[in-house]
Amino acid sequence: MNERKWYLKPNVVIEPLIERWYAWSHLISPATAAMNVVGRHLKIMNSYIQSPQIHAAAVLNPKMLGGPFMDYKENRVEDVKKLKNETLIKQARSVELAQAIQDLDKMLKSQAKGYALEALYEKVPDILKGYVELTYDLNNNPSFRIFESLLYNSEFYDPSLQSIALWVTDNDERPFCLSTARLDEPHVLHLNIPFDHEGIDMLCRMKRTPGSISEIAAMLHVQESDLPLFETFFTEQEHPAYRKYEGEFIRMRYFGHACILVETKDLSILVDPLISYYGYESSVTHYSDIDLPDVIDYVLITHNHQDHILFETLLPLRHKVRNIIVPRTTSGALQDPNLKLTFNHAGFKNVIEIDDMEKIRFKNCVITGLPFTGEHSDLNVNAKTCFHVAIDKFTLLFMADSRIVEARLYEHVKRITGDVDVIFLGMECDGAPLTWLYGPLLTEEMPRDKDQSRRLSGSDYQRGIHLVDIFHPKEVYVYAMGQEPWLEFISTVRYTEASNPIIQSNKLVNDCISRGLIAERLYGEKELLYSYAQIVEKIS
């Protein structure tokens, strides 16, 4: 068997985990990870241990979708108890770090009254000393800045907690990733390797380049007892080959949610990668990784939410990505971890930061970072950007989930960029409340009325149509709605025709069509082609 050449099956899930929880970006940065361990993981596990029947009932209720409930097909109380105990041992310093952050915040609120802060440094919790700077804003509100790069080089960052779960899937169904830990199951193989392990790249190359099972097993440190399961992840059947795009057009392909591939014969750009699996029946026609080029010149990341930075997609693509562009932040704020550091510590070394209105030029393309407003519950988060992409004179605007809270901002932008040809706009305009995602970072309870008012919401019709009025596009596409079935375990979105985001996006699409524009709400897959003749016509 080992003398033959094998391909990794196309429906093998490669799920990155941290202490058995789905690895999203806030679990990598040490400070946000510590707060999530205490404020999310331990709380959910304690709740499940006390009342597993409540969790079992809640996950069957569509109104509770995305709630803090563990979703298992059978009672797993003993396994969750074991995981909790292991967490308290392995992540003891993270638990202490989270408590220290809460104590520091409490101390500043009670003792920092607008006078000089230097005397308060001796009251900083001991394990935080040297990792924070105490600050005021211009209105004398106290806060602190975290030296995140130092935390990554301390005991608070432990890559030994990272692992990869492998299994063969035949559907898109999974429990909500933020609420359910990945416990042992007979069909799942857990590999205790860090995310920067070169074996991950070698394994993922085997989707297109056959290799030896024994060699990859040795590189990944697969135990002999696990080899029979590991061997089921491979096939001798070659997958469909990717055909490099050689046309005289600009080709765009929609892969679902906010993932768009832009190709010419000379370059490829992938926005907010989120790629579904294939090799099994699906109710929705969709592209998969067989439709991605062998080399991706640039990956563009718009913001730091779990449905836009998906390491489950990014780690398998790492070996073919030349550059990743991420929004810059050096705020040191707890809610605003640095994305370059996150990607570097996940094994990506080719990470470029971009500021608002900063340009990156290559070949016949210019990528410009644009301001991204809203959708972060009014928190001061800098790590978010929209992208203006110009290929020759053809221009694309990727707005992701930006909520157009002040239209005049984009009037200022338009004076610099000019009109655009195509706009992609997210319109999930209801959004979850602040605590759904950022709750573990809060150091005191958020009143319900305030929490419900501060939402993770994108643009509705009234706000989205501003972009059409300002940039005069020829085409408008609503995307990033989280509707595709392979998104549900991340986004927990289930719409009907009566859902407000559907009503609002229908209104925008219909308005655009009435103006003579091409407009559509994207779903599943879509291919768009733009000829250079259109570009020449535009220039003339």
How would you sum up this structure, described in words?
The protein has 540 residues and is an alpha/beta fold. It is 30% helix and 20% strand. Strands 14-13-12-11-10-9-22 form a 7-stranded mixed β-sheet. Strands 15-16-17-18-19-20-21 form a 7-stranded mixed β-sheet. Strand 18, helix 11 and strand 19 form a beta-alpha-beta unit. It is globular and about 65 Å long.
Looking at the structure, what is the overall shape?
A: globular
Rg estimate, integer Å: 24 Å
Low-confidence spans: pLDDT under 50, at least 5 residues? none
Class from secondary-structure proportions: alpha/beta
Strand content: 15-25%
Summarize the structure.
The chain is an alpha/beta fold and 540 residues long.
Topology of this protein?
Layout lengths: L6 E2 L3 E7 L2 E2 L7 H21 L1 H7 L18 H14 L1 H20 L20 E5 L5 E5 L1 H5 L9 E7 L20 E3 L6 H8 L7 H7 L7 H5 L2 E2 L13 E8 L2 E5 L4 E4 L24 E5 L10 H7 L3 E7 L11 H7 L5 E4 L4 E4 L2 E6 L15 E6 L2 E5 L8 H11 L4 E5 L7 H5 L9 H6 L7 H11 L3 E5 L8 H4 L8 H15 L3 E4 L4 E6 H8 L1
Parallel strand pairs: 11-12, 12-13, 13-14, 18-19, 19-20, 20-21
Antiparallel strand pairs: 1-8, 2-3, 2-6, 4-5, 6-7, 9-10, 9-22, 10-11, 15-16, 16-17, 17-18
Helix pairs in contact: 1-2, 1-3, 1-4, 11-14, 14-16
